[in-house]
Amino acid sequence: MDAELVKEFSKRYDETEKKCTEVIKKFNEFQNDVSVIQNLIIGKISPEIAKKSLLYFRFLQLTIDFLDLPLLLVAGSYKPVIQIVRYHFESLVQAFYLDRKHPNLNLDSKIAILTEIFDKQDYFVNRLIERVKIDAKGSLKKFYKELNRIVHPSYMDFPNVDEMLKKITRSESRIEQEEFDRTLKTVEKIYDVSLYLIFQEFPTLKETAKEDRSVIKTVESLNLCLLSKILH
Hints:
Blueprint: H1 3-19, H2 21-44, H3 47-50, H4 54-65, H5 69-74, H6 78-101, H7 107-117, H8 125-131, H9 137-151, H10 161-169, H11 177-201, H12 204-210, H13 213-221, H14 225-231
């Protein structure tokens, strides 16, 4: 890797560590705690069922992709993180809908359907949310609206010229504690969405989770609002 690039990344890391120490600590604790629930899911869903579920595939994909998010956050790349969150939100909703609509199809068949309908209006996310039978439609729509507001160009997306020039010339100007904190809260929400949809699709997880005090305690401490509604 280019030495200047390493130096630049190191500067951003130091600045993030200085400005966002408490936020980083809380997020690390969040990731460690949420892994308790993720491990329960991975341990309890049988391989035979998992191989048919597009939602489970998307859940694993999110779990793996999010291992790299801290690298982007440390570098001050907040909007790319939101774009990744939005991608996974759309993927999860599509997968949940297709698993419900075609429960007997294998994973390859569902992926084949996705290649055919990915740009069809009937499969746009808000329409899919309306079609599925879940209680959290309002919360999912609200979250999706928040994601779109951040990543889509708008009249609000115009910092002044001086701010833009500052970000070009000074790496530390990219590190903003408020933005860092907001982005992490968005990441925490997509974890909640993913777990909520998984528990909806695999209802046997509910009883297993309710018998595991560490899982219930984790859900309560992390304020996973959507998942909490299923388990209480």
